[in-house]
Amino acid sequence: MDVFDNLRYCFAMAASTLITLAGPVACCAPVRSDALDEAQAEGLARSFAALADPVRLRLLSFVTSSAGEVCACDLVEPSGRSQPTVSHHMKILVDAGLVAREKRGLWVWYRAVPAQLDALRSVLG
Amino acid sequence: MDVFDNLRYCFAMAASTLITLAGPVACCAPVRSDALDEAQAEGLARSFAALADPVRLRLLSFVTSSAGEVCACDLVEPSGRSQPTVSHHMKILVDAGLVAREKRGLWVWYRAVPAQLDALRSVLG
DNA sequence: TGCATACATCGACGAACGTCAATGTGACGT
DNA sequence: ACGTCACATTGACGTTCGTCGATGTATGCA
Fold it and tell me: What is the pTM of this model?
């Protein structure tokens, strides 16, 4: 299919639409300038991928619904996964910038990063 | 590690924190009731997974940034993927409820579903 | 110095994903 | 009926992901 075929079909569609129902004709203006470019999409996809796992979503909700901070030791049992698996998932959340990690003594404490959550939310609206 | 070990460490942490800095002690209240359960997390993860691919994000942006509707034939070239691949990705977006599909004659038209985008956005706040 | 603890990393496994060529399906126009 | 077109489905391939046992790292205590 080349661009001339495309144009021909668009005109045919527009004509038939006008004749039959006068419905919306959005064809022939396929891509607007405010669409995501490949680089933006790559970065955003990486962030959304951090939310694309049920275990990580629950871990994140444990962090966001807590009063400020949560100890890593309190995430293993409620998540129902092994300690290495929880550590793996928390690293993904931290790398995505959704959660901040702070080591104090033997323990690691996590807290949410509202700015990053806001950033992702703004993409959906 | 059992629950008694956990309690012992929490008390030790609380004590040392009070002695040294009187910092926040969020331990011993690990899981709040407003955390996601497994079923909710499963469904949300499936929706976010639809956004976890750069090609799908761009396809979605083509739809949302258009004036109402976009023809499937106008998605192949700007996405830079083959026609079967675009069809595959659009099916995932439709199954996730983010995009609505309507066949008119030979063509298929897509439009965004704002309600579903709102639902996902509310999870992040 | 030596041991115990909390968490991270490694290695391996099966499952799910993204991709495209080939083919199938359904709707036009002649 | 036939050919053509738009789009979906299939099948196969390599890649990435989630998971856990085993092991590594670093901190605290005696």
Answer: 0.79
